[in-house]
Write the structure tokens for this entry.
Amino acid sequence: MGTKYRLSVKTAALVALVFLLAGCAQFQTWEDSLQQPREWDGCALGGALIGAAVGGITTFFIAANTGAGTNRDNVKAVYIPIFTIVGGGLGALAGHYICDPIIPPPPPAPVVAEAPPPPPPQPPAPQPERIVLRGVHFDFNKYRIRPDAVPILDEAAEILSKHPDVTVDVNGYCDIIGSYRYNVRLSDRRAAAVAHYLESKGISSTHLVTHGYGKTHFVATNRTAEGRAQNRRVELVPVGQ
């Protein structure tokens, strides 16, 4: 009886080995299928039932033909549940990977276009160059250009030659002495004298606008000779400044 029992154990172990080898062979064949995730559905359940039935029935018939009496009953009691479970597990795996539905891969994430970088800030508008022209002074009741005014007007002519589009107001003024009408004419002549000098240095007359303001817009007191001398003048003022 001991020999028959050992034979039945060996036979059952051989059955288990066959199941395992078959499962491994199937897994090797289903290598591509194993790499795809699947839902656990009806195929896994059907495979489990079939595998459990095959494992249990096969073990039952092997035990029925192995040993006798109590030994046979012991084989049935021990190995039928074991191989029913093993068969059910292998069947469930086989059914799952054979026909359970494949879980579709998630849709690709939408490609979000990167926002273009903000444009660089605009450079500040260039500030117009400020042109500073010095004025000149005149002797009492005169409109002739004094020698000390020549270098000042030459400097003004050089500056204006570099800015041919600049228009200049040539504004003549007088001190307080004399009538209003007389001083207006005198201031006109002073402004014209300066304009003519600048024209002789190549400055276009169309960019020189003369004005005679007479005895107005004083820059110093008229109570002193020095103050009145400061008021007898011609100013050069670029238009727009």
Summary: The CA atoms of residues 8 and 14 lie 10 Å apart. Strands lie at 136-137, 168-172, 208-212, 233-238. The helical segments are 2-29, 31-34, 42-64, 70-99, 150-161, 180-200, 225-231.
